[in-house]
Write a structure and sequence with these properties.
Low-confidence stretches: none
Structural class: alpha/beta
Largest sheet: 6 strands, mixed
Strand order of the largest sheet: 7-8-9-4-10-11
Helix content: 25-40%
Distance between the termini: 56 Å
Number of strands: 11
Shape: globular
Mean pLDDT: 88
Order of helices and strands: EEEEHEEHEHHHEHEHEEHH
Radius of gyration: 19 Å
Length: 252
Amino acid sequence: MTLAIKTSGLTRCFGDLRAVDSLDLRVEAGKFYGFLSPNGAGKSTTIKMLTGLLAPTSGTMCILGEEIEDPEKAREVKRRIGVVPEELALFDNLTAQEYLTFIGRMYKMPAPTIKERCRELLTMMNLDSEEKLTLEYSHGMKKKLTLAAALIPNPDLLFLDEPFEGVDAVSSRVLRDTLKRCVARGATVFLTSHVLDIVERLCTDFGIIVEGKLVHQGTMDEIRTGGSLEELFLEAVGSDNIEHKKLSWLED
């Protein structure tokens, strides 16, 4: 079994807070992996460490077979991954075409390849207006452009932090189909989403973290034999007090 992601004792502290606590992830290459947690439980911090944006306090990470603590190896790995971060950061005074061209150049892609992939991605995402600057984009349009930027290098590993948030239904369907094709050709997708229905329909494998700790890791086939992902998630995060979270004026 080839692993696209392997972590051992991965930990990140912010002062006294252990945002990620001794995380041991195993994500097989070619899988569609859903990474789930309640709000503030360490999902985004984990992605930032896995993509080299945030240094771990302790522990090790192996991404696409390389230990990314080595700066030279980290640079090589980054050429093979695509990322949609939680916080969208675009260059406001560029058009979508200019932004994707810049991203393609950062990946050192040939100019003809950049041009062709820009055309296809912008058409697919319905962002092919040549004049509009990203400054004028809605949140959903910015999210789609960030997704296009993650896809342009044809990565071996995609990190997607809430990729469907703010995206319209048509583009969401196109994106889901595109991600399935990425996995079918051998890429690995690491997805975070609070929409459990999307995770259950798309993912082959999943992990759940609570308060920075990995509390469950398994396959969707295990879920489909009985019960649902929602039931397992609620059990994992602790749902005993749900019945008490009601509005008094809505009760009989």
